[in-house]
Amino acid sequence: MNDLTLLNSDLDLDLTLLDDEAFTADLVAFAEKLEQQWHELLAEQSTLLALL
User: In whole angstroms, what is the distance from residue 45 CA to residue 13 CA?
Assistant: First the structure.
């Protein structure tokens, strides 16, 4: 996906679960999605720069 629409939907983590393993798992999953989107954006940027 080339946009950050998933970013907003993933931000609805329940902050009442700060000490809960489920919160940690959600946070890790969010970080992995964010990293994937970052790499996709870098790849898209490289492609666009190559076209200049």
Answer: 30
